[in-house]
TrEMBL record:
S-adenosyl-L-methionine binds at G34, G35, H36, D53, F82, D103, Q110. The gene is rsmH. The lineage of its organism: Bacteria, Bacillati, Bacillota, Bacilli, Lactobacillales. Its main location: cytoplasm. Belongs to the methyltransferase superfamily. RsmH family. It is an enzyme of class 2 (transferase). Pfam families: Methyltransf_5 (PF01795). The keyword Isomerase does not apply. InterPro entries: RsmH, SAM-dep_MeTrfase_MraW_recog, SAM-dependent_MTases_sf. It catalyses: cytidine(1402) in 16S rRNA + S-adenosyl-L-methionine = N(4)-methylcytidine(1402) in 16S rRNA + S-adenosyl-L-homocysteine + H(+). Keywords: Cytoplasm, Methyltransferase, rRNA processing, S-adenosyl-L-methionine, Transferase. It is found in: Cytoplasm. Its EC number is 2.1.1.199. This is Ribosomal RNA small subunit methyltransferase H.
């Protein structure tokens, strides 16, 4: 069994942000190492937690890690992409919940397991699938997607300003032979980025690898779809907590929450806002919640973390 050496980011802030009802129904959309799930379960009496993960490794690990809560009937696992949250919960007879958590990004064991091909620091076959049942992997994108499509994902998902140069380098190399490993891809990315630029801003392959991971797993599309459903699933006073680790995700969450908490097209000079025009949701904190100084010192992964929380205020 894989050992999850994983420090959960913003653990207390996120679970406290749910304002848990001990008899409520909660959803952890990103089970991973089980840190948030365990903290929620510790606060439940007659309540229940449904924990999602598309990675069988995480499910298998937590069958032992959280065994006492399974035996108590408080915990159910759902192996699926969280974009299917409504369908999966409805199939279990759940149509409204009291709180939902998202801890986005890749779990530490996925990065640490070289065979998964997520990391530019380990040599492995290009893969990057969070769900090993999916057919699309990083190898297919790198070797088969056209130049224009590569440029698009590198720029949109990785914010790589040398997207065209990197895509050309990939195109040129794959004409001679397939690009099979992370190590090969790292060297090709370096070919596309000027030497002066490679000396600044961290590892030169970081942005392209992020873009490939997002594309392989449709992370932004899945998040948008899942959040749209989560907002509808939340009952009165229910909350959604989302931890993001990069600007694209955070911007998406911020904008979606803003849409739900802002009165759109408000007429000018309206003296009183009619109740029917009031938003159904409110932001629990107007600005994102950031890790404490202590957490920043102890957990490097927390440095880019942002927590946003929304609450339903209408019945």
């Amino acid at each position: 069994m894989v050992k999850f050496n994983h420090e959960t980011v913003l653990l207390n802030e996120t679970v406290d942000g749910l304002d848990i009802n001990p008899n409520g129904v909660y959803v952890d959309c990103t089970l991973g190492g089980g840190g948030h799930s365990r903290k929620i379960l510790e606060k439940l009496d007659k309540g229940h937690l449904y924990s999602f993960d598309q990675d069988q490794v995480a499910i298998d690990y937590n069958k032992e890690n959280l065994k006492e809560y399974i035996d108590d009937g408080k915990l159910s696992f759902i192996r699926d992409n969280f974009k299917n949250i409504t369908k999966d919960l409805n199939e279990l007879g759940i149509y409204s919940v009291d709180g939902i958590i998202y801890d986005l990004g890749v779990s530490s064991p996925q990065f640490d397991d070289a065979s998964r091909g997520f990391s530019y620091q380990h040599n492995a076959r290009l893969d990057m699938r969070m769900d090993q049942r999916n057919s699309l992997d990083a190898w297919q994108i790198v070797n088969e997607w056209p130049y224009n499509k590569l440029v698009k994902i590198f720029f949109r998902y990785g914010e790589e300003k040398f997207s065209k140069q990197v895509a050309r380098a990939i195109e040129s190399n794959r004409e001679r032979h397939s690009i099979d490993t992370t190590e090969e891809l790292v060297e090709i990315i370096k070919q596309g980025i000027p030497a002066a630029a490679r000396r600044h801003g961290g590892h030169p392959a970081k942005k392209v690898f992020q873009a490939l991971r997002i594309a392989v797993n449709d992370e932004l599309g899945s998040l948008e779809s899942s959040l749209e459903d989560a907002i509808k699933l939340i009952g009165f006073n229910g909350r959604i907590c989302v931890i993001t680790f990069q600007s694209l995700e955070d911007r998406l969450v911020k904008n979606m929450f803003k849409e739900q908490t802002t009165i759109m097209d408000l007429p000018h000079n309206l003296p009183i806002i009619p109740p029917e025009m009031e938003p159904d949701y409110k932001l629990v904190s107007r600005k994102p919640i950031l890790p404490s100084d202590e957490e920043l010192k102890e957990n490097h992964r927390s440095h880019s973390a942002r927590l946003r929380i929304i609450q339903r205020i209408s019945k």
